[in-house]
UniProtKB/TrEMBL annotation:
The lineage of its organism: Eukaryota, Metazoa, Chordata, Craniata, Vertebrata. It comes from Chauna torquata (Southern screamer). The gene is Cenpi. It comes from the Eukaryota. Residues 1-53 are annotated as: Disordered. Residues 1-12, 26-39 have a biased composition (Basic and acidic residues). This is CENPI protein. InterPro entries: CENP-I (IPR012485). Belongs to the CENP-I/CTF3 family.
Length: 747
């Protein structure tokens, strides 16, 4: 490969190569140079210190530019001095663009020992951008094999880490075939695959060299995760050229390359983002996340690498892409408004740091509008590896970063809410980490993510979700139990909403797996409801029927009772007796009112299902079982017997009901025991009865409940309705009146 003449000539002075780069003086000041102001302004002590650093860096770069012969680090104090200068300034402020050409050429030319070259490469942290020309010049040194294999590996790791800091990538994309040739090297292959993964476009997937990588994948290297990741991207772009069946799940795909530069990069990023207008909230009104210490949150912001601030401002009117050109791309760091998104929606070039998509509403809009599977694939790999490496309770010594991890999980959850679908990598993370979770660390964030788990087979969900949750559920606090129930309710609602969307867009072929068919959905939802019914029954016993817990349980069944009419799902499951009877006999009017509303909706849905079944307008794939109707009738008899006819102890025929012999009831010595649970004497309603008596008979202080009968009974009902007991009203008007009329007709 032919190198640029200017980069080989060590006596060539430093030049500013394009408008995107700044000279060393501008780097020293932290902004683009202004000659007039720099002459007029009086230098402060800090400016003088910066001048000293600037002069030292200029001396160091000049020294490395003129190095010709191999110099021993131990014997040369001058080399030690300039090397330490470069290291300290790079780690504190980052290097200016002009320094990369010199330092890369020295490190890769083999002029110095590997110890020095390694330290130089680890010091290459940009203050703003990395010039593409410097990278191309450095790559050309790989052709002549002047440096050792360890230095080549370190350079590839540096290139992967700094990929989004490179100001342009056109020439780098032109070297795709050159990088591809390094797949033969077993040591370099993992990092070359990672680099190719970042560079790959659709035209690369159509290359005839696919045969070569498939050969290495299947026979030479075996089922390596880095090759699998690259092949999966090729298969996405050109499925006809990749016939290999790839494994569906893999924990880690690429080795972590950013270790030596991680801390310095995060420091420079935070400083640059604080001073950049691109770090301001976007036009859709979402606030930009605060800068973080850890890599996941620093990568949540779109990197401003392809152009600096001044260039973006100056080129504001030039960043529209020619809609008739198919070769242009629009960098996402220039995307600032929704109108820009609409104008350039087919030409966006996403960064390699796919985490930046999560916190950018414009890019999330793009993911919603354009079903680009390559974005989901890249995000899947990035998020899966990040969650695995940084989980607070799965990785030793990560406890100190719990708050940062919470913020990251919160960002993932908000992105899932925006897209209205869960991420596959997040589901895999939950399945792996829930058995190790203590139920306390990041509780709110984990349970929110649980609500977006996509529908899977029962065997998979039972072992990976239900069983770990149940162990924590039974041994944790009341608040944790309520939080789990709320999360499972949201999970059920998300599945049902997905089903409604699928009914509205049956032509959408995105979801076609076996588990997302109607039968798969019905079975999955039924298992979830049975699971919640089981843990709810046990929890009520453990917590002595606490009203707070009962509210969340009944809130879940408010969704269950309306699945047929509201979500068009042919499924209704009654709550277990361990939930129904504690709610019916509850001492809290809110719980009783909730139960009444739930039974009213069950009746409405069952009647509609029976009418549709009898009308035979269309052949129904699913029919409600007779057991569902039978269980509903048993519950309705118990409710009517308690609240209205005062005959629950005689007529309740449920195996777990409240039917008792009269002889046993008489032994309780409770007067008028038959009326104990009607709407006057019920413990949840007695407070209303007392207030009604005070208003109807203000002079009577005996509180004689037997006065509420006849017309007074109807007045009492109207009083209850006026207190906001809507559920009780709907239940009485829909069910009790029909039972009363039926009994009168029989008489």
């Amino acid at each position: 490969m032919q190198r640029r003449q200017g980069s080989k000539d060590s006596k060539q002075p430093l030049h500013v190569r394009n408008s995107n780069q700044t000279d060393l003086s501008a780097w020293r000041k932290g902004e683009r140079i202004d000659t007039e102001k720099s002459v007029q302004n009086h230098q402060s002590p800090s400016d003088q210190k910066n001048d000293s650093k600037h002069y030292s860096l200029e001396q160091a770069l000049s020294y490395f530019e003129k190095v010709q012969d191999r110099i021993s680090l131990k014997k040369s104090e001058l080399l030690q001095k300039h090397l330490s200068t470069v290291e300290s300034i790079a780690l504190q402020r980052g290097l200016p663009p002009e320094g990369f050409d010199i330092l890369l050429n020295v490190a890769l030319s083999g002029k110095l020992a590997d110890t020095v070259n390694t330290r130089l490469l680890k010091s290459l942290v940009p203050a703003s951008v990395v010039p593409e020309t410097s990278v191309v010049s450095a790559v050309s040194w790989l052709c002549v094999s002047k440096c050792s294999s360890n230095i080549q590996l370190l350079f590839l790791r540096w290139l992967i880490t700094m990929f989004d800091f490179i100001d342009h990538k056109d020439q780098l994309h032109a070297l795709y075939g050159f990088f591809f040739s390094f797949l033969h090297d077993e040591k370099m292959c993992p990092y070359v695959c990672h680099l190719l993964y970042l560079l790959t476009r659709k035209e690369n997937g159509e290359s005839i060299q696919l045969y070569e990588i498939k050969y290495h994948f299947g026979f030479y290297f075996g089922m390596q995760p880095h090759l699998q990741a690259l092949l999966s991207l090729y298969k996405l772009f050109c499925p006809e050229l990749v016939s290999i069946t790839l494994p569906g799940k893999m924990k880690t795909y690429f080795k972590n390359s950013e270790g030596p530069w991680k801390a310095a990069i995060n420091t420079i990023r935070r400083r640059n983002q604080a001073n950049s207008p691109m770090s301001q909230p976007l036009c859709l009104g979402t606030a930009q996340p605060q800068s973080r210490k850890r890599k996941w949150n620093t990568q949540l912001i779109v990197p401003a690498s392809s152009a600096n601030t001044q260039t973006l401002v100056g080129a504001k009117e030039k960043n529209r892409v020619d809609l008739y050109s198919t070769n242009e791309s629009f960098p996402v760091e220039q995307l600032q408004t929704f109108s820009q998104l609409l104008q350039n929606i087919h030409y966006l070039e996403f960064p390699s740091q796919m985490g930046s998509v999560l916190a950018n509403p414009l890019l999330l809009h793009y993911m919603n509008c354009i079903k680009d599977e390559s974005i989901y694939l890249r995000l899947y790999y990035w998020m899966g590896q990040t969650l695995q490496e940084e989980c607070t309770w799965c990785v030793v010594d990560n406890n100190q970063y719990e708050q940062e991890f919470k913020d990251f999980l919160e960002t993932v959850y908000k992105a899932e809410c925006f897209l209205q679908e869960g991420f596959l990598s997040c589901e895999e993370f939950l399945y792996r980490s829930l058995p190790l979770w203590d139920g306390f660390c990041c509780r709110s964030q984990i349970l929110r993510l649980v609500s977006w788990i996509p529908l899977s087979s029962f065997s998979e969900m039972k072992s990976h979700l239900y069983d770990p949750l149940a162990q924590l559920f039974f041994t944790s606090s009341l608040y944790f139990k309520c939080s789990v129930l709320e999360s499972l309710k949201e999970l059920l609602q998300n599945w049902l909403n997905w089903h409604v969307i699928q009914l509205d867009s049956e032509s959408d072929t995105q979801f076609c797996s076996l588990n997302t068919t109607l039968s798969g959905l019905v079975n999955g939802v039924a298992e979830l409801i049975h699971f919640v019914g089981w843990i709810s029954t046990v929890a009520l016993r453990l917590e002595n029927n606490r009203t707070f817990l009962l509210y969340f349980i009944l809130d879940f069944y408010e969704t269950v009772c309306d699945m047929y009419l509201r979500y068009n799902l042919p499924l209704l499951i009654m709550p277990p007796a361990g939930v129904f009877y504690p709610a019916l006999l509850s001492m809290d009017s809110v719980s009783l009112n909730q139960l009444c509303y739930i039974m009213y909706r069950y009746r409405t849905n069952l009647v509609a299902a029976k009418e549709n079944e009898l009308s035979k307008k269309k052949i129904q794939q699913f029919k409600f079982s007779s057991q569902t109707y039978q269980e509903y009738n048993q519950y309705i008899i118990a409710m009517v017997g308690c609240l209205w006819t005062s005959s629950a102890f005689q007529k309740d025929n449920h195996p777990q009901g409240v039917r008792l012999d009269d002889e046993l009831l008489k032994k309780t010595r409770v007067q008028e025991f038959k009326n104990s649970f009607n709407i006057v004497y019920h413990p949840a309603m007695m407070g209303y009865a007392v207030l009604f008596l005070q208003q109807a008979w203000p002079d009577d202080t005996t509180f004689n409940f037997s006065l509420i009968k006849g017309k007074k009974w109807n007045w009492y009902l109207e009083y209850l309705y006026a207190q906001g007991l809507k559920g009780l009203k709907l239940f009485i008007e829909s069910s009790i009146n029909r039972v009363s009329q039926a009994s009168q007709n029989k008489a």
